[in-house]
């Protein structure tokens, strides 16, 4: 049962950065409601990034909300684009190998995508299916839709052209291919991050050129990571991965800066906009952000691990961090990014007089006298990748909290 | 029997504007001589201009000289390029019609080409044969050979880009297609006018990219027309068409400005460079250019009409113009371009008191008392398209020479 557009619109628009355009979306939803026929939602994915985090998931969650409203999603794996990524290689063999690799990547990727999306309302297609069949003449028809100057308006092309960094002519076809995928699918809506503006709007241009109804373009904002400043990214270490253990996920959400709480509700949960409005009001009324973050951590962890695991994670969090087993005031030790493992910081611990020597430290670990975030360390090499806020306890009274810079 | 490169080189290089490069040409000729295997000479033709004049024939004559040296020519009709000329048209039907038209044009064109080339040593091919078979992936491989910046170096693209005149992305493929034709043919030499520099050099780039030996690029200069200033062109009226009657051709060659005599020997005849050298010396020795032009007119007319017709044309020329049947000093009448027919100029003739009235003029014509370039006018509408230098004789003593402006 597809609901009327008035019910759907607020959910569709929750957290959206830009939409082109709202009136067209309303008309599509109206027709979809009248005919009880789901809209086709398109998402193009480049299966090169194997690990999905909450930043990637912003678009996926929005799509999941559309699925919950009854619509159908088509994920386009850009394997044809990948295949021509470096067409200077002359050997056919290499291209074929690339295909296998792309398919393997896509499978891993889809496993993670289905941690968010509903498989029954999702179709996965590879764009080589139709793109590889285009003739030179059809490719030229595609090329003729767009001028060189228009293409050079795209930020990255413009910069490269101005900096005299060569742009291969084939690169102009990436946006054209992505746009042509929308023609092939007759997509009603395409989603993307704001960095995808040019490519997603190309879909509208091409659909119009082929005499089809234009897709609505919905752009989602970028989600800042735990540092509250930079875009969430694995390489910056400020991320929450969708595959992380429930305890880790729960604790990381608790580290979200207070000023991002509402944004995380908007972009990292499927909560109704009315609920997000209530959260805003509670914060404005002076409620302790920590309590609201407990709700947020609970909601997010539940999305990826279910109720039972989430309950355990919350209990663990409260035992280890909240119920004062760790003192409120802990000295902070600053560690350089890249030096953030237990192995690396033993000299720092000696210098800070938390341990006398490496051998004492190893003996204490062997005696189970060392804990990391409330969990006993089993051996020296454990707890790789310390992040800001992690706590190390040595014996009963020696505590240190880390800050990674 | 293919001769040694020392014999061929001077003929190959006669009148050439630019060659890239001479050493490579020598090597190819050497190998061709050693193996007694003809080189493959490529000429791409755009069959849009139906009437060939001596300006067009400059490249054809050079190729004819190569045929006489034993090499084989492949004429490429760019019908695929024509087919995508305006790919915005959505109807397949139109494209198919275009094909028919291109083929009809090509046939007319080839009939004229064979007024210069030797049919037995010429193959005509349509580039749709291989280009229409390229897949999207292969087209991208082609596109990846060249950067956007490199393409925008081409004069016309550069001007349009700077003047913000849109360049469709498909237009970048015209030079790529022409270059790919060289890959397909494994051409040894490609000829073109100097305006074809970018496109012909693209053939070298692509052959290298495909691991083939690069073609030698030979560029022929533009031939000025009878005005001695502008490039020979039908629309400027300063041309000598290869299909013109022997008398007309002979007379027009006699109108070539003296300072272009050597250039016409170089570019419009197949005479050996040693002979051209002798002509230079005769002119330097103060021989009357008119006598040398008689030789030139004889050679050129013979190339297109054979000895017998040429002898007649020469006789006609000498009777009508040389043997003083027409006075040396004839009053000149200036006529606007577009007004240059007998019908148009009757009022001018009245005004200049050459005739009393239109009716007198028509009566004189009926009495065979009016000649045009020495030939009796049969009726009023004859002698369409007066050109500069044409002479009208009315009765015995009234002469007028025309100058078209």
Automatic annotation (TrEMBL), chains A, B:
One Pfam family hit: tRNA-synt_1b
Residues binding ATP, per UniProt: 234
Localization of this protein: Cytoplasm
Any GO molecular function: tyrosine-tRNA ligase activity
Highest taxon of source: Bacteria
Subunit structure: Homodimer.
Identification of the protein by name: Tyrosine--tRNA ligase
